[in-house]
């Protein structure tokens, strides 16, 4: 019988020791699962606190506050520094847009009410698409299922672009930087038009111009669901500037997400394309925007997408500085050919 020569040989000869390996592995897996679960619960708690604080500070910041909460949940604590460096500019852009947008109707510039309607009728042979759609589909006495669908598509603008930003940052950091620049360009160009030429949406134009009634479908749906909650929410989100209609930033940002999804292949880009079209239809049908508002919004997004690369060259030194400071916390960032968008 061979004589054991070291501790390893002694361990192997102990009876029942053959089961120690699998048992230890299971315990390690259980500990890892518990750590992951605890990390998620901690992030959820932090997100709830952050969201509550933001809403108490100013309810009109609900959109980007939701984005902050979603990002806190999605990002591991070990990558918090990298996450903060990446999304503080993003959150700052949306915060600045929200604040400036609320001032765009206080400049004394004449509000456009009938001019956009006239352009719309010229484009469509004397017909206003919103009026035509509502006359065929909408019944203010009976809310249909598609009224809910179009309203929810409209409301999805407050979280879908931010979720897309998180996914891009995690899977393709290089593309996230370009998306950040494109978002800033889109919001900035929208603000310029808001200040220089404030325009009323269809539902408001109907109150000020001699034409057929246009219903605000969102209001009917919201009050059908919960009148008190809808009125409080709208007073926080919509009242700061209800006449920021031209261009449609809802469509602009949605179309921008679609353009960036083209890098992820057809499995992602086709659904996002359908979503962008559904957003445009919903905005027109529900009386929130004219067709021309959505076309101008999509055009601005296209410009931002095409020229964001050039703008990125000017900001590259800033991103490089941030990357050097957060490099120990960031896994190797894929280059453009390795991570190509939302679905990789």
Short description:
With 344 residues, the chain is mainly α. The chain is globular and about 75 Å long.
Give a count of the beta strands, DSSP E runs of length 2 or more. 0
User: How many structural domains are formed by the residues?
Assistant: 1
Strand content: under 5%
Alpha carbon gap, first and last residue: 58 Å
Class computed from helices, strands and strand pairing: mainly alpha
Give the low-pLDDT segments.
5-19, 326-341
Characterize the main sheet: none
Shape: globular
Per-chain topology:
Elements: H1 7-13, H2 20-57, H3 62-74, H4 80-101, H5 114-123, H6 129-137, H7 145-155, H8 160-171, H9 173-196, H10 202-208, H11 217-237, H12 249-261, H13 266-285, H14 291-326
């Amino acid at each position: 019988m061979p004589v054991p020569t070291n501790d390893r040989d002694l361990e192997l000869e102990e009876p029942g020791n053959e089961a120690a390996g699998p048992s230890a592995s299971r315990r390690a897996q259980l500990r890892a699962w518990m750590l992951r679960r605890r990390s998620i619960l901690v992030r959820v708690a932090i997100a709830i606190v952050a969201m509550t604080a933001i809403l108490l500070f100013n309810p009109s910041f609900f959109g980007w506050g939701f984005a902050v909460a979603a990002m806190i949940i999605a990002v591991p604590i070990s990558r918090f520094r990298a996450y903060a460096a990446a999304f503080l500019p993003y959150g700052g852009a949306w915060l600045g847009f929200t604040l400036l947008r609320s001032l765009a109707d206080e400049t004394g510039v004449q509000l456009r009410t009938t001019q956009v309607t006239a352009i719309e009728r010229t484009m469509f042979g004397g017909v206003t698409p919103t009026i035509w759609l509502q006359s065929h589909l909408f019944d203010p006495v009976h809310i249909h299922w598609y009224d809910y669908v179009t309203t929810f598509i409209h409301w999805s603008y407050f979280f879908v672009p931010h979720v897309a930003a998180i996914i891009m940052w995690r899977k393709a950091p290089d593309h996230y930087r370009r998306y950040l620049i494109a978002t800033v360009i889109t919001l900035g160009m929208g603000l310029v038009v808001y200040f220089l030429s404030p325009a009323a949406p269809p539902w408001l134009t109907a109150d000020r111009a001699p034409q057929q009634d246009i219903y605000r479908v969102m209001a009917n749906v919201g009050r059908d669901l919960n009148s008190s909650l809808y009125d409080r929410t709208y007073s926080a989100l919509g009242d700061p500037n209800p006449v920021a209609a031209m261009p449609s930033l809802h469509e602009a940002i949605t179309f921008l997400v679609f353009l960036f999804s083209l890098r992820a292949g057809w499995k992602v880009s086709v659904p996002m394309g359908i979503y962008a079209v559904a957003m445009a239809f919903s905005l027109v049908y529900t009386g929130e925007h004219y067709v021309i508002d959505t076309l101008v919004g999509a055009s601005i997004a296209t410009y931002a997408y095409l020229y964001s690369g050039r703008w990125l060259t000017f900001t590259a030194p800033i991103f490089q500085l941030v990357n050097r400071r957060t490099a120990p916390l960031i896994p190797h960032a894929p280059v453009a050919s390795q991570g190509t968008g939302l679905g990789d």
